[in-house]
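Example for tutorial group B:
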């Protein structure tokens, strides 16, 4: 599934469009008092989105009805520079009037297996004991090797079909992470990829370009079963896509 691809001039424009989609989806979910459950990606790309969301008029988003989760987390403490939670907290959450109970941090400070189990318990508590959690929106990035969340090529976590979240040892990075699994990600109503910068041009050609075989990469395995898949790609990352 290729999904809908939007080409935007730069990272700022990607962040702005992503914020607009976030607000739209939150309004759809919270109309008539429903909850908006979103999983944020880590890495550096979402920073522009977080800054935009941190500046929107508070009334645009019902943070009291919003549950913030993460697609993945590095196994570090929440105040560690590498923490995805810290990134979102510094740029967004610290600026919001959001109830602490609505922020469902992955406990990266725990031993990886325990942290993953705790996150699964939290997902079950919020989404129910049966079936797969169904996020309203999942925001993802793409690594240069085609990884997304913490689903890396040739790593067992890709094949996991039962667990909701699991620990992953990333040999290349010599670090542990905790990630949502593919079945959970693909059960979302909306999945939004944010991809910016020249370093992503080659992997984007592989994923979405003519002759590319995206299925080889975790990011190419993201296919929402019943939802929408949207790519927001800036000029630099789409360099090879627009040239045929
Ligand atoms: C993480 C992310 C990861 C990220 C990509 C892209 O924890 O690092 O979840 O999947 O989205 O590695 O990272 P950048 O946005 O920093 O390029």
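The residue assignment follows.
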């Amino acid at each position: 599934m290729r999904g809908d691809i939007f080409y935007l001039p730069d990272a700022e424009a990607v962040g702005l469009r992503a914020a607009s989609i976030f607000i739209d989806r939150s309004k759809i979910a919270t109309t008539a008092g429903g909850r908006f459950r979103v999983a944020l990606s880590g890495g550096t790309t979402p920073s522009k989105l977080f800054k935009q969301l941190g500046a929107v008029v508070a009334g645009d988003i019902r943070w009291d009805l919003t549950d913030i989760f993460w697609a993945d987390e590095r196994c570090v403490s929440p105040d560690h520079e590498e923490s995805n939670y810290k990134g979102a907290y510094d740029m967004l959450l610290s600026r919001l009037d959001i109830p602490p109970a609505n922020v469902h941090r992955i406990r990266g400070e725990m031993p990886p297996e325990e942290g993953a189990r705790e996150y699964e318990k939290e997902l079950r508590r919020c989404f129910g004991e049966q079936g797969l959690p169904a996020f309203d929106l999942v925001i993802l990035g793409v690594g240069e090797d085609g990884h997304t969340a913490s689903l890396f090529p040739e790593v067992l976590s890709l094949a996991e079909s039962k667990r909701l979240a699991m620990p992953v040892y990333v040999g290349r990075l010599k670090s542990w992470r905790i990630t949502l699994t593919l079945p959970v990600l693909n059960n979302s109503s909306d999945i939004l990829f944010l991809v910016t910068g020249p370093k992503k041009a080659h992997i984007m050609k592989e994923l979405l370009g003519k002759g590319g075989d995206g299925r080889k990469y975790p990011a190419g395995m993201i296919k929402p079963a019943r939802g929408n898949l949207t790519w927001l790609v800036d000029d630099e990352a789409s360099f090879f896509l627009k040239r045929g």
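The beta strands are 4-8, 36-40, 66-70, 72-74, 137-140, 165-170, 175-180, 190-195, 228-234. Compare this with the pattern of hydrophobic and polar residues in the output above.
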